[in-house]
Specification:
single chain, 221 residues, alpha/beta, Rossmann fold, 2 domains
Length: 221
């Protein structure tokens, strides 16, 4: 059983997280601690697969704890959660420690990140790395796939493309949506692409242009 260490000085939040994440007990076990000192002690005494930590805590804060883990458990993935993150801090932490989640967040969102970090992603159909986005999506179109494609650029930025029966319905990339988001995603080369089963709810079609015309427009931009 995978074991996840969760560190936060907010005892009420820690209790809520532990209680709700308990429904995933068939996939991972959570161990909550309320400060960096207890976290280091737990890491020395037990084996953990993942660290989830707040940044701003009294005593040993999240940055110090992450440095300790990086030095002593270099292969352990980490998820950083905070309510006071700047874009610069987010970029720096995501680049070094994988995931950053901004408070307030839904526990479901955190659970998805935990499962992804543990290699147990829900609804994941497959992953491809180092591929051209436009080239891969031609395959999605030709196979009439219904899926959501998560596209991650080399610098860690992520976007999403929603397909229904091989037709591109919508796209999201940062603050961009629809056609503009799709064109910017199509420009990416050597991206990492994960494609998953779509959610049960139907997405309204926001992109009317064909995939081939959007790829041409991205290439000309």
């Amino acid at each position: 059983m995978e074991r996840v260490l969760i560190v936060d000085d907010d005892e009420q939040l820690l209790l809520i997280l532990t209680e709700i994440l308990g429904k995933y007990k068939n996939k991972f076990e959570t161990v909550p601690v309320k400060n960096g000192f207890d976290a280091i002690r737990a890491l020395q005494e037990q084996k953990f697969s993942l660290l989830v930590t707040d940044i701003y805590m009294p005593g040993i804060n999240g940055i110090v704890l992450l440095s300790y883990v990086s030095k002593n458990f270099p292969n352990m993935p980490c998820i950083v959660m905070t309510g006071h993150g700047t874009p610069e801090l987010k970029e720096r932490l995501e680049k070094k420690y994988a995931h950053f989640i901004q408070k307030p967040f839904s526990v479901t969102e955190l659970a998805d990140l935990i499962l992804e970090s543990l290699g147990q992603e829900q609804n994941l159909l497959g992953t491809m790395s180092g591929v051209s986005v436009s080239g891969f999506l031609k395959l999605v179109e030709s196979e009439s796939m219904t899926c959501i494609c998560e596209v991650q650029s080399e610098d860690g930025k992520r976007g999403y493309l929603v397909f229904d029966g091989g037709t591109l319905y919508n796209a999201f990339y940062g603050k961009l949506k629809g056609k503009e988001a799709a064109i910017n995603l199509f420009k990416l080369d050597k991206a990492k692409i994960k494609f998953r089963h779509p959610p049960k709810k139907k997405f309204p079609r926001q992109i009317k242009s064909s995939l081939s015309s959007l790829i041409k427009e991205a290439a000309a931009a």
